[in-house]
Amino acid sequence: MIQKRRGLIVWVYSLRQLKNLRRFGLIHFVSSKMKYVVLYVNEEDVEATLEKINKLHFVREVDVSHRPDIEMNFADKIGTKAAFQEEDEPDFESDVQIPEIRLAEHL
C-alpha cells in the first residue's frame, strides 16, 4: 500500500544542522543559495512533525505544501466551450494613426 505523504518546506538560517532534519522525514531537495529544505513526511504525522520542527533553533519558518489538496481532475474543464473561447483582441493597427514621413526633397 502506498503511504500518503505531504511536503514541508523548511526555511533555515544555516544548513549545518541538515542532519537533524533527516530524523523527521525524507529530504527531497536542499537549496544552499536560498537556504531551504524540501522534506516529505507521512500525512498523519504532519501536524506533530510541524510543531517539532518549528521548535528547532535553526529553523526560520515552515510551509506546508498544498499540492494534495488541489483537485487534479481537469476532464470537465477541457471539454467546455469556455476553455477554448478566445477573447476579442482590439485591433491596434486601426486605432493608431501612423504619421506620414515626408522627405525634404518632396516639400
If you had to describe this structure to a student in words, what would you say it looks like?
- 10% of the residues are buried.
- The protein is 23% helix and 25% strand.
- The model has no long low-confidence stretch (mean pLDDT 84).
- The longest helix has 9 residues, at 46-54.
- The protein has helices at residues 18-21, 46-54, 75-78, 81-84, 92-95, and strands at residues 5-12, 26-31, 36-42, 59-64.
- By secondary structure, the protein is of the alpha+beta class.
- The chain contains five helices and four strands, in the order βαββαβααα.
- It has a domain at 5-69: Alpha-Beta Plaits.
- Strands 2-3-1-4 form a four-stranded antiparallel β-sheet, covered by helices on one side.
What keyword list fits this structure?
107 residues, alpha+beta, Alpha-Beta Plaits, four-stranded antiparallel β-sheet, 5 helices, 25% strand, elongated, DUF2129
By secondary-structure content and strand pairing, the structural class works out as: alpha+beta
Query: What is the CATH domain class of one domain?
Result: Alpha Beta
Helix content: 10-25%
The named CATH superfamily of one domain: Lrp/AsnC effector binding domain/regulation of amino acid metabolism (RAM) domain
* Low-confidence regions: none
Secondary structure: number of strands: 4
How many DSSP H or I helices? 5
Going across the major beta sheet, what is the strand order? 2-3-1-4
H-E string: EHEEHEHHH
CATH architecture of one domain: 2-Layer Sandwich
Distance between the termini: 86 Å
Report Rg. 27 Å
> Mind describing the biggest β-sheet?
4 strands, antiparallel
User: Which fold does the CATH topology of one domain refer to?
Assistant: Alpha-Beta Plaits
GO cellular component, one term: cytoplasm
Protein name: UPF0298 protein RU93_GL000156
Subcellular location: Cytoplasm
Pfam families: DUF2129
